[in-house]
Amino acid sequence: MILVTGATGFIGRHLVEQLLADGRPVRLLLPDYKQKKLPWANPPEIVTGTLLDEEAVFRAVTGAHTIYHLDSAQWWGRQRDLERIELVGTRTLLAAARSARVGRVIALSHLGASVSSAYMILRIKGMVEETIRASGLAYTIIRSGVVFGEDDAFVNHIAMMLRATPFVFLMPGRGEVVLHPLYITDLVKALVRALELVDSIDTTVDIGGPEYLTVEDLIRTVMRVSGSPRIIVPLPPYVLRWLSIIYSRVFPRSLITPQWLDLLATNRTAPLGNIFNHFAIQPRRFEDTLLTYMPEKRYWWPMLRYTLRRRPRSI
Which domains does the chain have, with CATH numbers? Predict the structure, then answer.
């Protein structure tokens, strides 16, 4: 049995779909409100609860040989939400996993995660990594670059912001920060293959796509593919952080969050061949992949629906 936390998130949905397609037994830990509209035709076994419910977590891990730990509040949560879900939730999960003699934890992190990072999301992810390493359980930590796909919350938000500002695009800094985007299908393949690879046990693996992109290159690529040319206006990152705070006070959700800006604040790359060397995966290029779905997408309605939708409940 494989337990997946955060199964209704962007990465979790694709991972569960692949595990089910492979015929693997899957169990999910989900609160009630996330069970109403599940994206799978034949949903797997579900344990109702959250990472802070110790009894529900123990029921979920009992009989599981592997845990995929994906639960996160990185796109919408404030610091309090991140600390509760990422740190406290992970500690609860690991304590229950030790009691239930779970064989292994496979966790997803970010390139650049470190307990000494100056940026909140990277610092908390680094603390989560240290907690997993000190747990006494066999583990695999996969650090990935920014993950993109047809329903992601990063590249699509850039396209939405291009629709919201018809003449200019406000870019954090000078756009020189280097990123290492990774397509969702390639990441899911790596997560699934980690199950079978003995060499990946008790290791931390950094992976990204086949190319490096600066923030400015990434923005210009999205403009070109989505057909939304804009004048790029560089702004100091702290100005955009202030704007994101104001925006979040006006709308239930903000397209730009402090965590979103954290991921653009510093170079975050892995060796180009890592995903092939570790998992024998030939990753897809950023622009080539966007061309398969972005030109046909219309972003006005998704932008309004996202910004006016109620924020997820903090557990």
Answer: 2-145+183-207 (3.40.50.720), 155-178+211-266+284-308 (3.90.25)
Bridge partners, 141 (sequence order): 107, 204
Beta bridge partners of 68: 4, 106
Give the integer Cα–Cα distance in Å for 298 and 173. Answer: 28
Q: Read out DSSP for 238-286?
A: HHHHHHHHHHHHHSSS-SS-HHHHHTTSS-----TTHHHHHH---PPPH
CB-CB contact of 31 with 20 (8 Å): no
Q: Strand, helix or coil at 175? A: coil
Identify the CA nearest to 101 among candidates 135, 56, 55, 129.
Answer: 135
CA distance 110 to 286: 18
Q: Which amino acid is at 167?
A: F
Q: What is the pLDDT averaged over residues 143-172? A: 88
How confident is the model at residue 78, as a pLDDT?
67
Q: What is the DSSP letter of 258?
A: H
Task: Give the position of tokens 């003449």.
Answer: 167
φ, ψ for residue 308, nearest 5 deg: -95, -5
What's the token pair of residue 197? Answer: 């690879």
253 vs 213 pLDDT, higher one? 213
And the tokens for 281? 């995966």
- The DSSP bridge pattern shows strands 178-179 and 213-214 to be antiparallel
Burial class (CB in 10 A: 0-12, 13-18, 19+), 37: exposed
Q: 43-61: per-residue pLDDT in tens? A: 889 999 989 899 999 999 9
